[in-house]
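Predict fold of DUF4440 domain-containing protein; 169 aa.
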Amino acid sequence: MTITLNFQPIDKIRKQVKSKLWLGLVMATSLTVPTLANAEITQRDIDNYGTAMAAAANAKSISRVASLVADDALISVSRKGKTTTLNKSNYLNLLQNNWSKATRYGYDIQLNNVVISGNHAKADAITTEVIVENNVTTRLVTTSRITFAESGNSVLLSRAISQLVIEKH
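Predicted 3D structure, encoded as tokens:
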């Protein structure tokens, strides 16, 4: 009994593998390049973020505010020489606490000096919360440097370093 094995020359196999790998690489690149181009943050995205955050906070909508903050966000707040770092959950709880005790509440955010680099951006921010409780008006003014990141079709707050001033009237 005779068994005959038919082998292709190794060079021919290498050429086939290389051509398939090259084709796969070209296809993968052509699929990812448009995605990267769409991921760049624009000034308009930052402006829209400010509008959306103010609207969400003034509507006291925790779900809308949560959708504007990255899950791994860190917010460092300093006041009178003491610093506290808040994660997303802590920040949302603090905001809800302010809403719950207020008979009247207002929120404003101003974003300036925006620097954009691809799918990240930084901006100076001044936020003002006005809380009226028992006929006493308290203004919480934060001056921050915020880092934004692109996620899907959204711009999210990912980091903030803030100085807080509390004024009672």
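The longest strand covers residues 136-151.
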